[in-house]
Amino acid sequence: MSHITILSSSEKRLFDLPPKFSKDERYLYFSLTPELKRTISRFNTHDTRAGFMLQLAYFRANARFFPIESFKKRDIEYVKSIFKSPKIDLAKYNSTIISRHRNKILSILDWQDYDKDAKDLLVSYAHRQTNNQQKPKQIFIGLIDLCWKNKIRVPSFFELSEIVTVSFSRTEDELLTKTEKLLNLSDRQLLENILTPGDKVRSRSQPPITALKKINQSLRPNQIKESLCVTEKFRDLFMAHLETFKALPLNDQATEYYATWFYKADYQQLSQFPNRSKAYLHLLSFIKHQFYKRQDTLVDILLKSVTSIKHTANAKLTNEEQATKKERNQALQLLNKTHKSAWSFAKSVIAIVNATNATPNEKYYKIEELVDEFEIIDEKDDKKLTELDQYLSKESRNQSYYELLTELSNKLQRRVSGIVKVLEFDRSSSSKSILVAIDYFKSGDSKISNNPPRDFLTKAEDALVYCEDEINTPLYKCLLFFHIAASIKSGELNLVYSYRFRAIQDYLIDKTYWESNKNKILAETGLTKFANGEHYLEQLKGKLDDKYHKVNTQSIDGLNPYLKFDLSGKPVVRTPSIELENKEYIATTLSDNGYIPILSLLKDINNITDFTKGFKHFSNKNSKMNPSEKIIFAGIIGKGCNIGLHKLANISNGISEHVLHNTVNWCFDLKNIQEANRRVVDTIHSLDLANNYIYKPSVIHSSSDGRKVNVSVDSLHANYSFKYFGRDKGVTMYTFIDERQSLFYSTVFSSSDREAAYVIDGLMQNDVKKKRIHSTDTHGFTEQMFAATHFIDVDFAPRFKQLGSQRIYSFSAKRTYQKKGYPILPSRTIDRKLILKNWDDVLRFMATIKSNHTSASQLFKRLSSYAQTNPLYKALKEFGRIIKSQFILTYYDDMKLRQQIQKQLNRVELTNKFAHAVFFDNDQAFREGTKEEQEIGTACQVLLQNTIILWNYLYLSDLILKTKDKDQRTSIIEAIAQGSVITWRHVNLRGEYDFTRKPENDQKFDLKKIKSLKI
User: Fold this and answer.
1) Longest dimension (CA), the chain
2) Fewer CB within 10 A of the end CB, N or C, for the chain?
3) Cα 693 off chain centre by
């Protein structure tokens, strides 16, 4: 079996060679503990001591052992200097001693060898990831990470590559075998009929199914009707093969992968597929994928239509109130005047009646005089008061609003009645009262009797819908749709066949599988240390107690001058700002030699990184077309600058529009662009000038923030927001950046979504072995996010706008922190019982994320629907409060951390301005309506940004190397350190693009020389 291509030849060679140490790294990895010194002192010769030390250092760095013939000369010389030995002969370091030393190293460092059990763990992990259709390289990196987390010796490249290759082959063989077994002759014939064009379309060589790939994003009734017809076709096809889908082990990720190939392929590729079982697998996946996505799309239409009607009703109500405001004020003045007059008349009558010195006749005549003098309101004024009375009566029951809903009901019905009939709801996890009403609505062909199901209505709504033994049918339907929308959002109503609106349990690792394989899954996902919840909470309690004690002691002893308390006793923290002294130095220096065209810049960076190698054909085996460099550049510019492929081909020389579209179709999937971006980011991280920006060498600080972007086409993914888009609609483009100013992840989501749900998605993509800190603004923070980041070994450090309003918690109900004037006190006690009762579900939730079974954003968005009732949601939130309390106490006490948070958030804000400059065409508005297309455009934009950042680093590093004067070189380095490489004014992003010029043979930058630069 030929192995899947995972690493390039040079990368493979480097993987199987010992690491190349810097001076500082050599000092670190060759250091000896007292135990190691005692061990080495027992060896007889310097040769065996040297061999042991070299093996130890390499293992510490790479968790691997290497053959002695590959040991580095510089490292051997370093060991010589340690032992003060003029000569070391490793030829005397024989295989028996080598093997014994390796076992000793594993024992001392408490690691295990790569044995059968370890291989089983790696194979299980790889199989799970191939089921999720992760890229081979991602799985390869994940296997290495799994070894480190479980302290298993990392095997060779060949062994890891074989695990990945066998896993992919096994996964696909299982699917194909199962497909072939499940499909009978009738099923096959039905699928062949779908792939075979009818007579009317035969001349165009297009099968009927091909025309149904695109999902309409419009909210217009006629377009919705067309979408419903197509959804019904896919529903019929899906239901015809329902038993096959139930038996086929095809999860969401695999479904999307095989369906995407079908989506990209043309008719000829489909009809000539040599393996018919594989063709059927792709087709079945496409049917399932389309049905699921179209169900989700219909839900989006329903939710947006309901929201639109609500907004329309409220707007009309506001307008009506404004229009009648003058008349109501006049009526109120009249009422006031009438009231005063009536009260005056009443008081006079009472005074006459109570007079003791007047006869009854005298009282009668006096009252008669008062009646003659009393001013009676005219008919016009009486009408005004009647109208006011009616208005107040209606408002007391909010009747005006419901009358408007009755008027608008038909408009809503035209959009959503058909949708409700097509959606397939999950009866096992949905509210019965709303399901009964939905079933009634479906069965009656939208006709409503005088006694429909009304249990889902509130008492006030029911009183308005059913009044005087009559049902208000338009209002009933309108409120039914309102409650369906609200129930879907709240998780009371779930879909069966959906990617985004299923019950929360459907997204988690199967409960039965979890219970049978819990320890293995925890090991695979690096969660073993959390297995014993009670023990882990006890550890956190000790840490939190110590943190309270330290912070309060610092404050009481006057060692924290930046922490004060207001009159109510709330903490107030001051953070000195960090001013950059040389803001313009880098930008000016880079601009000194004029503008560099973006095409030239891309060529320079590709010569260094080979990032275009990431754009492989949509196939894990990568056996298809290898697109040319210039076509990939054109695709990146067309997508990343928002120019569009058609326009770019027309304003450029040397580019065929057909070839460009074909290349983008097959090679520009999101994972490929991310792989290309990773190559650029890895090169940035290898530069000493970039690492000079890291505040603490052992820690990587990153941040993320969103930028609002308009969408100029129909898009269910986009939302209206007057604050951000005026009368238009848009989305949020969310970007992650680290201290080295490399952009390592990006995504796009609805502008109405909270950013916090997407933080974990980005952090899971960042393959960093060092300790990690991540910062967001307030919109990226929730207590659940503190919990989730803790489980993935990231310190969450958001910036709080109102720090004093944030509660901090403790484990003790006895207020153990109120000792002798401690100023900072917990405001509430952690509910340990709640956390421990749901600890197993919390671990299952996090294992689902860490195993890539379901994305964190999908889980958190669905889980947040259950905020009021779901115990998992509450337990995650309660656990997050522990971690949040630890952070806030640290935040009070660590002024440097606060400054770093501010500095890192400034970087991501600058990145958003950078993105604005790169994504310049078409008024900087997306012209694609789907999330998938918008994410591809954003990923290309981020790739362009990173190439510019890397080019800046290379230019500045080259400048430093060419500067011979030591003082001047130091001055340049200091100026760079006080500025930012996120600058772009020296890059010409616009104009005519000429792809006909041959690439220059000479590289602009010597990477080997630049990597030798030490700051």
Assistant:
1) 140
2) N
3) 26
pLDDT value, residue 1009: 84
Nearest CA to 746 out of 728, 731, 758, 730 is that of 758
User: How many of the other CB atoms lie within 10 Å of CB of 6?
Assistant: 21
**pLDDT at residue 1013, rounded to an integer:** 84
Are the CB atoms for 705 and 697 separated by under 8 Å? no
Asked if residues 941 and 919 have their Cβ atoms less than 8 Å apart, the reply is: yes
Element (H, E) at 729: strand 729-738
CA distance linking residue 415 with residue 798, whole number of Å: 42
- Tell me how far apart the alpha carbons of residues 491 and 873 are, in angstroms, rounded to a whole number: 13
Question: Which tokens is 30 given?
Answer: 């060759």
Phi then psi for residue 125, to 5 deg, are -60, -45
* Partners of 653 in the β-ladder: 994
CB atoms within 10 A of CB 538: 12
Alpha-carbon distance of 166 to 848, in angstroms, equals 24
The letter for the amino acid at 246 is K
Q: Which residue in the block uniquely carries the two structure tokens 């971006």?
A: 677
Buried b (16+ CB within 10 A) or exposed e, 910-925: ebeebbeebbebeeeb
pTM above 0.90, yes or no: no
Query: Would the pLDDT of 569 be above 50?
Result: yes
Alpha-carbon span 398 to 404, nearest angstrom: 11
pLDDT in tens, 584-610: 899 999 999 889 999 999 999 999 999
User: What is the rounded CA–CA span in Å between residue 260 and residue 668?
Assistant: 12
**pLDDT interval class at 450 (50, 70, 90):** confident
Distance (Å, whole) CA 476 – CA 481: 9
Residue ranges of the alpha helices (H) in 927-965?
A: 931-962
**Residue, of 956 and 39, whose pLDDT is higher:** 956
**Cα–Cα separations (whole angstroms), residue 825 to 544, 552, 569, 812, 884:** 12, 9, 10, 11, 14
d(CA 546, CA 22): 37
CA distance between the termini of the chain: 47
SS3 225: helix
The per-residue pLDDT for range 486-540, each reduced to its tens digit, is 999 999 999 999 999 999 999 999 999 999 999 999 999 999 999 999 999 999 9
- Confirm if 888 and 880 have CB atoms less than 8 A apart: no
Q: What are phi and psi of 987, to 5 degrees?
A: -105, 130
Amino acid at 666: W
| Cα 542 from Cα 106, distance rounded (Å) | 31
Cα 875 from Cα 841, distance rounded (Å): 9
- Phi and psi torsions of 178, nearest 5°: -65, -40
What distances in angstroms separate CA 139 from CA 113, 146, 571, 847, 851, one per listed residue?
21, 10, 47, 16, 11
Helices of type H across 241-275? 242-247, 252-264, 267-271
Residues in the chain: 1015
Q: Is 110 helix (H, G, I), strand (E, B) or coil?
A: coil
**Cβ-based neighbour number of residue 750 at 10 Å:** 17
Strand partners, 705: 735
| Measured distance CA(106)–CA(112) in Å, rounded | 6
The chain-wide mean pLDDT, for the chain, equals: 88
Report d(CA 684, CA 947) in Å as an integer: 9
Summarised one tens digit per residue, pLDDT across range 712-753 is: 999 998 999 888 898 899 999 999 999 999 999 999 999 999
Show the 3-state SS of 861-885.
HHHHCCCCCCHHHHHHHHHHHHHHH
pLDDT higher at 628 or 213: 628
DSSP 578: -
- Among all chains, which residue has been given the structure tokens 């002759």? 185
Q: Provide the 3-class DSSP secondary structure of residue 796.
A: strand
Q: pLDDT category, 870, cuts 50, 70, 90? A: confident
